[in-house]
Specification:
This is GIY-YIG domain-containing protein. This protein is an alpha+beta fold and 84 residues long. The protein is built from 4 helices and 3 strands, in the order ββααβαα. The protein has helices at residues 22-31, 37-40, 56-68, 71-83, and strands at 2-8, 14-19, 46-53.
Length: 84
Amino acid sequence: MYHLYILRCSDGTFYTGITTDLARRLAEHNFFKRGAKYTHARRPVQLVYTKKFRTKSAALKTEFKIKQLTREEKILLIARATAC
């Protein structure tokens, strides 16, 4: 199972990624050097969106699409997910 996730960084920006272990990856972003270089300088980060996928390919395709969205479109995506 693959998890696509969006993090809100301390400076208000968003970071999107995929992982097979969401709890481990979130800890890496917040506490360890293994987190992405982008989030390392913008700690703490907060998980604001997640979606599960059966295949890595599907997760990567959706990650690419989300990364193409504008900031406003990402905010709407997150808002729709939290409203459910």
